[in-house]
Amino acid sequence: MTSDRNPGYAEAGRSQVEAAAEGAPAGSRLTDESESYTLQVNGREESVKAAWLGESLLYVLRERLGLPGSKNACEQGECGSCSVFLDGTLVVSCCVLAADAVDSEVVTVEGLEPGDGLSDVQQHFLDAGAVQCGFCTPGLIVAVHDLLDRVPDADELTVREAISGNLCRCTGYGRILQAVVDVQRQRAGTQP
Amino acid sequence: MTVARPTTLSQAVDALAAMPDAQLLAGGTDFMVEVNFGHRRPTDVVALRRVAELRHHATDGDEVVLGANVTYSQMQTELAEALPALAAAARTVGSPQIRNAGTIGGNVATASPAGDTLPFLAAVEADVVLASPDGTRRLPLADFITAAKRTAIQPGEVISEVRFPAVRGPQQFLKVGTRNAMVISIACCAMVVDTDHRRVRCAFGSVAARPLRPTEAEDFISDALDWDTLDAETNAVDRFAALAAAAAEPITDHRGTAEYRRHTVKVMARRALTRSLRA
Amino acid sequence: MKPVLSAAAPFAPTAPTAPPHSDRKRSTDRGVGTSSSRPDGIPKVKGQFAFSSDLWADGMLWGRTLRSPHPSARIRDLDTEAARRIPGVHAVLTADDVPGEPNYGLEHADQPVFASDVIRYQGEAVAAVAADHPEIAWRAVQAIEVDYEPTAAVVDPEAAIDAPPVHPDGNVFRHLTIRHGDLEATGEVTVEGAYAVGMQDQAFLGPESGMAIPGDDGGVDLYISTQWLHVDRDQVAACLGLAPELVRLTLSGVGGAFGAREDVSLQVHVCLLALRTGRAVKMLYSREESFFGHVHRHPARMWYRHHANSNGDLVKVEARLLLDGGAYASSSTAVIANAACFSCGPYRVPNAHIDAWVVRTNNPPCGAMRGFGAVQACFGHESQMDKLAAALDMDPVQLRLRNALRSGDELITGQHITGTAPARECIEAAVAHPLPPEPTGKGGGPDDPLLLPGGAGRTADRADVRRGVGFAVGFKNLMYSEGFDDFSTAAVRLEEGVNGEPVATVHCAAAEVGQGFVTLAQQIVRSVLGVDRVVLRAADTRVGSAGSTSASRQTWMSGGAVQAAALAVRDSLLERVAEARGVEVQGARRKLLTLRNGEVVGVEGRFRLTLTDALGGRPVEEVREYRHAPTMPLDDDGQGDAHVSYAFAAHRAVVDVDPELGLIRVLQITTGQDVGKALNPLQVTGQIEGGIAQGLGLAVMEEIVVDGGRIRNPSFTDYLIPTALDMPDVQATLIEQPEPGAPFGAKGVGEPPTISSTPAVVSAIRAATGIDLCRVPVRPDDIALSERTP
């Protein structure tokens, strides 16, 4: 227990996927109104067996595929905590019907920097003090990646508007905005 | 349970014909909230987002055509010059993530009194185009939306397009909300000053069950405007605003009082017109 | 049942905490006073941190609660048969299934685990189910048939005082009086006002969630997000009818708290379901349910009369405060004490006549939220100070400076401030920051709509906008008061790690809710022991209580406990070395041996030992309880040394207002805050900015709208919290005057930012509009429809 990463996710994630492959105990009583399909998540094929049709992509990611990085803060598209890329477009996964996400490329926060390392956005969030409780953090990390890939030199107002759909209750956004500036400086090579 | 994933409009119509009870899913931003909150229980679904032909927008002669799958983000960026008021309305919808997914077809189909693009579509007197196995039919928006969250869509029909006459002249969109981003409107206003037809048309959202056209106010100001200089007397502007406010049928709810909503109609009408004249 | 939780111990493995690609730093670089990085930061940015909603166990079931749609009703009949028959449903529990105490509560056990006959608020729990899938659980809840007989709801807190009792314990939770000084005294100038505060929600991002796993011994393991494990444990054990040691709680990742997790929500329900089904059960509130599932900030009605001499000296304050506690007691009795004790603000007030009530109604239950009673009072007293300044024709900042409390002064409770009280310094720092540039003239200036009130809604042009500047000061107590036995426990262990380097392990039940105590615990141990690697064990009930993560108390209390335990480890180690080296251990050992830079150093440098050598293969472990100086209850006149220490903050707000539409944009907030000593300046900044955001929210947008006892906006669509386009730049100055008696001189910093930021914003709106706003949140109508709108 001395890794600097939280243990358990890898194992839990795998076992959830395996459980799903074995017949999805979590959905077993809904088989008469369920659907099986395959999703492409973080570059991998993930099979979803016997899922209730009403399950959101957020639910399937979290509860069936062992990818709980996308957070369930409101489930009504009003907080951004479950932001993912769907075919390269930033969306909230709570508002995506999972069964309608087949044949789309889904990238979650877990897929941004798959190894032990951190993306520059993740690193600067950490260094700038942009993380407190952390519940909004994964969604913000995804949203900031989206913004800075599209608009590398976004000014402050553009940044504020771009993350205005990501609610944070802890930080008041000040350190988050600082982290974005720090990433921009590093990418532009203007940071010492 | 089935999710049909058509890629063409005709496939979508066929899928719906095959599953008459299926629910239509576009951007998901209304649909999924209802599912997540237990207000909608999907059985069969026809998912429309892969129908690429519905994602186009163009000017077809004197008519603007917006495919039902055009997203708010598309409107905000791709239509910013051609339809600035629609682009401005789209920018106020939800969050960037919602704007990336939500569509104009969905906004029309949901027919919420607070639907942000609806006042613009009402002001330009848009038609809703519905496709079915029997072909297509066009309905004026005013006939399509029959009540709050109620429409005239028939079983087997899919919204394919929104069409309206191209309009020249200043256009405005204003929206009052308690927060400076990601907020449902307390009231909103779309206005087009149609210089070709010398007609001011406007509509207000969230102040009636359906997008509200204050026709008496429009008649008055269309007469009162000096169309050559695009100018009006201050008291004419005020009277226009007062007439618009009088036409509103607002309710009091947790977002605002009826009195305040009526007040905002007056203020927005005056400001929208003043900006149009100044422009 | 093997507890295959994905992560029962979100903070456990934390070494090395330095970012992997950065150079390993020395312990001294990451000790007390540095902006050391969070130990949970890497998993949080990677989406790998285990919040309580992320837990997963083999074969787990999903729990769900049935809640009353009525604020006041009798239950005539309750039939769960149809729900039980649904395939995939494993348990349906009601009040009849509670084996132990039927009620729970933080201070008074007056809230039923499940309502059995009477419903006292909308959203009260009636039953709970466990099922294979959340959808099945949802259907089961729908299938429970309840025959309610709606009854008249008591929703007006004033009427509640004399209304028929909502509960056998009566409708007045507490009436507290403060009579101080000469009650007949009058001032040359008086100002009077009535003020109101709406119901604010903590709106943490991570809704209530947890997982219970039945144990082989008849007990249960609960993995939960909470603010206080041990007080949860005691309530849960009582309701389950189990000995406390059979109810084992472990803190799971907490998605914010702000007071809302101090009370029990789903804890008892999920444990009951797990024990009944013999399986792991996960419960997870939706955002909507969360609004019904936790207590809120008390709405307040306040009346004030301030007396002053014409030179500006305060003579007397009279106040009547009424808080609506809702249906159950929660922490209402402590909240009202704070509202009363701090009702006059951080000023010398020689004479005070205060009456404060908190009452029971059929409204949603209210309890702890950041600022805890001081928030409501501050809106009242600061509005009064502005009014007084106007009546005296004095500058409002000068009036506050003139009356500001300082160390040694007497409070209206008769208690003298023995610690630091830099109210004056906070005020001066807040106003020393430059104002934002004026817009460049009518119709000119930046015309991006995002810079104007209404934002992308494009409602305003620059010419429609007026600017105002406002100011406010506040203070509140740190830690628990009125004689409460307030303590924290920590265990620190020092041992040789696998690679030969010394490793310290901290075990403390302090709930990390985002504030960064985990960072601080590491910093403290590094500074005391000079050891770089500090591992935090999961917070759980296997160690003694750390008290609540509330009242801005963990830096002081659990920081103090960790420091005390670390010092004890140091002393034990030095003693061991002294014995081994034949150094005289009695009395003077500290002079002969020191622990410096991770080494044990003999007197006059006669020898140096690494920690690892000093340990000699044997760990050292010490457990310490830390208590603050004792307090005492208030007497019948509200007098007594009820509090330990106080923290101050001042805020200046600059706002742009569109008076005609009543829309607002806050463009700057500056602050001076009394922090004692900043143990982690970056984290202090984060607390200040985040606290201000919540104060701003209360000022202009945040309110649970309750109508006839019913919540009208239980969603993030309609309960609005500030976005990145609503929060302005914050300029903060930390006032560092080390607090005597506080570990490292540090004061808690979490609450003060939320207290006076609200009245500062409202004061600025008043300045911009000339409207006498006396209620928060300020609604657009309050401005736009005011008769005084020019």
Helix share of residues of chain C? Answer: 10-25%
Distance between the termini of chain A: 36 Å
User: What kind of sheet is the major sheet of chain C?
Assistant: 7 strands, mixed
CATH superfamily of the largest domain in chain A: Beta-grasp domain
Multimeric state: heterotrimer
Greatest contact between two chains: A-C, 81 and 92 residues
Q: What ranges of chain A have pLDDT less than 50 throughout 5 or more consecutive residues? A: 1-29
Distance between the termini of chain C: 71 Å
- Stated plainly, the CATH topology of the largest domain in chain A is called Ubiquitin-like (UB roll)
Number of strands of chain C: 33
The rough form of chain A would be described as elongated
Q: H/E element string of chain A?
A: HEEHEEEHHHH
Task: Give a verbal description of the structure.
The complex is a heterotrimer of chains A (192), B (279) and C (790). Chain A has 192 residues and is α+β, with helices and mostly antiparallel strands. Chain A folds into two domains: 35-111, Beta-grasp domain (Ubiquitin-like (UB roll), Roll), CATH 3.10.20; 120-188, DNA polymerase, domain 1 (Orthogonal Bundle), CATH 1.10.150. Chain A contains six helices and five strands. Chain A has helices spanning 9-21, 57-64, 120-128, 137-150, 156-162, 174-188, and strands spanning 34-41, 44-52, 83-86, 89-92, 105-107. A five-stranded mixed β-sheet of chain A has the order 2-1-5-3-4, sandwiched between helices. In chain A, a hairpin with a 2-residue loop joins strand 3 (83-86) and strand 4 (89-92). The termini of chain A are far apart. Chain B is α+β, with helices and mostly antiparallel strands. Chain B has eleven helices and 13 strands. In chain B, helix 9 (215-224) packs antiparallel against helix 10. Helix content of chain C is 25%, strand content 25%. Chain C has 18 helices and 33 strands. In chain C, a hairpin with a 6-residue loop joins strand 4 (103-104) and strand 5 (111-112). Chain C is globular, with a radius of gyration of 27 Å. Chains in contact: A-B, A-C, B-C. The interface between A and C is large, with 81 and 92 residues.
